[in-house]
Design a protein that fits this description.
Radius of gyration: 34 Å
Structural class: alpha+beta
Number of strands: 23
Distance between the termini: 24 Å
Shape: elongated
Order of helices and strands: HEHEEEEEEHEEEEEEHEHEEEEEHEEEE
Helix content: 10-25%
Strand content: over 45%
Number of helices: 6
Largest sheet: 7 strands, antiparallel
């Protein structure tokens, strides 16, 4: 089966209510609206048709006794379904599962036929052959799927699949016309039954392949060599007559074979998250991220010692020599005249992010250490505690939620000093400039890459809007499907 079909059917397996499980904490919620379901369903039908056609069927052999003539041996071979058209398709979720149906389906088949017969009146056997065109009208196909959630993964089951054909018409070419009726009587019902069974078998085979693919789905999305996003499924899905919602863990974890998450490093609310709410109901998909997701990311990188920077290059290079500080910290220059320096900025705690209505506030706590370099020795001479307050905003970059931070306020206090008292009012303008021109551009370049949103490969967000509310960020968007990596073919609603 084409990987595209696997990805598309994967969306539909999320419609299916699992057996009850113990409630678990989730921090990312996803909602697929009716427009989103219709988009995926239409795309699934298009891809399924391209996969099913052409489909060869088994050869049929039959011996029929015709009065006066005797036994006639019929053989039908090279039966091939080469065209399929689905008039109407729909997805019907229920407590028993999800029913994916196609009705008013028509298809065309081609085949070869051959017969031979012998009779006491004709000592020499007579045979003939030809081709035929078969037209199927009024076919209906359906699949009912069930699902269990086990250990954060999804187990797909095929509850029922069927295909029913109202009638077929056969147009023969070649052979003795007086035997046509006997041929039709002998094979019409069997050809109809063969087509029904073959299509049902094909549907069952596709579901089996999908079930195997689900077992191999990763439980984490790698962000870089440090972090990954925990995408194990938790809790029961939200089901309504016009939308589907489901929840995943969503916290950042170490990018290793284990799944240790930093849930204990953040403050989380008790209970399950509410369904995703989009201001525009026509959007196909909504993804809500609790602020705990971002706090877990900061906690992970902080514990991995990735929030520590040594600055030894500056646009204003004079600040990396004690001479550049002689009017700001005279005693530094007096004790270490014309010595080289480097600056050590280390966060003392993970950044504190607060998401509220239409804004994102953040506070960063850091220690700023001035180091004097004498030969191979680095001498810490003073440490200043920083409290950097600012405002952040997010945007969609491809399928990532990217961020940006702007400093609004800076508070400073002397933590310790080996060179006497420092005047913070003299140092603060220099520190503000250093943070804005050196530190923040680096940080914004990193968070500007963004974190990956939980989307199936091939699907892309389109015309996304971002809503910030109490403790969560919601992305509401339409989607498109890109068939190839070069963007040669893109499907949109």
């Amino acid at each position: 089966m084409s990987p595209i079909i696997i990805y598309l059917l994967l969306i539909f397996h999320l419609l299916i209510p699992p057996h009850p499980i113990t409630a678990d904490q989730s921090f990312i919620s996803v909602l697929i609206t009716q427009n989103g379901l219709d988009f995926v369903k239409n795309l699934l039908v298009t891809k399924a048709i391209s996969t099913i056609t052409p489909t060869p069927f088994n050869q049929i052999d039959r011996v029929v006794r015709i009065p006066v003539i005797g036994k006639v041996h019929y053989v039908v071979s090279d039966i091939t379904l080469y065209r399929l058209n689905v008039g109407l398709s729909q997805v019907i979720p229920s407590v028993l599962g999800v029913y994916i149906a196609g009705s008013d389906v028509s298809c065309d088949l081609s085949m070869k036929w051959h017969y031979y017969y012998g009779s006491p009146f004709f000592p020499i056997p007579i045979s003939d052959s030809g081709t035929a065109a078969i037209k199927v009208n009024g076919m209906e196909m359906g699949i009912t799927l069930g699902l269990d959630i086990r250990d954060g993964s999804m187990k797909l089951s095929n509850i029922e699949s069927n295909c029913h054909i109202d009638d077929i018409s056969i147009d023969l070419d070649g052979g003795a016309s007086w035997l046509y009726q006997g041929f039709l009587d002998a094979f019409k019902d069997e050809i109809l039954s063969t087509v029904e069974k073959s299509i049902t078998k094909t549907l069952n085979g596709e579901i089996s392949k999908l079930e195997n693919a689900l077992q191999s789905l990763p439980k984490q999305i790698s962000v870089d060599n440090v972090a990954a996003l925990n995408v194990t499924f938790v809790n029961n899905p939200f089901l309504s007559d016009r939308s589907l919602g489901f929840e995943i863990n969503g916290l950042f974890i170490e990018n290793k074979t284990d799944t240790h998450s930093y849930i204990n490093s953040v403050n989380v609310r008790d209970g399950l998250q509410p369904p995703v709410r989009c201001s525009d109901p026509s959007k196909m998909i909504g993804i809500a991220l609790d602020e705990a997701v971002f706090k877990s990311a900061f906690a992970l990188y902080y514990n991995a010692m990735y929030m520590h920077w040594i600055v030894d290059k500056l646009p204003e290079q004079s600040l990396l020599n004690t001479a550049g500080w002689r009017f700001i910290i005279p005693q530094l220059y007096k004790k270490y005249p014309n010595d080289d320096m480097n600056l050590n900025l280390s966060l003392s705690d993970p950044p504190d992010v607060q998401i509220s209505q239409q804004k994102i506030d953040a506070i960063v706590y850091a220690d700023f250490i001035l180091n004097v370099v004498e030969g191979v020795d680095t001498i810490p001479v003073a440490c200043i505690s920083l409290e950097i307050s600012g405002m952040g905003w997010v945007q969609i970059t491809r399928n990532n939620l990217a961020g940006n931070f702007k400093m609004n306020d800076l508070n400073m206090s002397l933590k310790w000093s080996k060179i006497g008292t420092l005047h913070m009012f003299l140092i603060q303008p220099v520190m503000w400039t250093l943070i804005e021109t050196v530190i923040l551009p680096y940080i914004n370049a990193r968070i500007g890459i963004g974190l990956p949103l939980p989307l199936v490969d091939g699907f892309m967000l389109r015309n996304a809007e971002i809503i910030t509310s109490y403790s969560r960020i919601t992305v509401c968007s339409d989607v498109a499907y890109q068939e190839s990596f070069d963007g040669a073919k893109i499907y949109t609603l």
